[in-house]
Give the backbone structure.
Amino acid sequence: MPPKEKIEEVIRELQKIMRIQDWDIELKLCTAGQMEKETGDIYNIGEAYRNLRLKSSTIRLNTEDMGDKFQGWYHTLIHEMKHIQTTEFIYLFDNLLDGVDMPEDIKKIIKWQTRDYYEQWMNNCAREFITLCPLSNFILDDIKVGGTI
Ligand SMILES: [Zn+2]
């Protein structure tokens, strides 16, 4: 994984491409232990906390994620930024569901299934995005990029 400043440069470029420049995005690189402490899940490889009203987000990337199934940290970063890009959708969905009069257990099932679908959707978006915009598009010449790149 490149140094934090390099990843932040990539984030700024990705914001332009994804047209989410109006979001303040903070990057936190976390060990698995910190991930557990901050997100409750030691296996969490990434997370994007979002505040839609403030248009601010904190992206956490797990520095101990050695997964290279797709493109390692870059895939995780794109996935998290796709969450930011689609924040309004999921807020709208949650608000609509909260406003509907139906049994809570049914709401819970709908919410869980939507969350599953939403995660798959973000993964598919990230894979497609990487095909069009691989990490090699960014100038990272002075660093050794980890994963399968
Ligand atoms: Zn996700």
In short: Strands lie at 24-30, 46-51, 56-62. Residues 79, 83, 119, 122 surround zinc ion (CB under 6 Å).
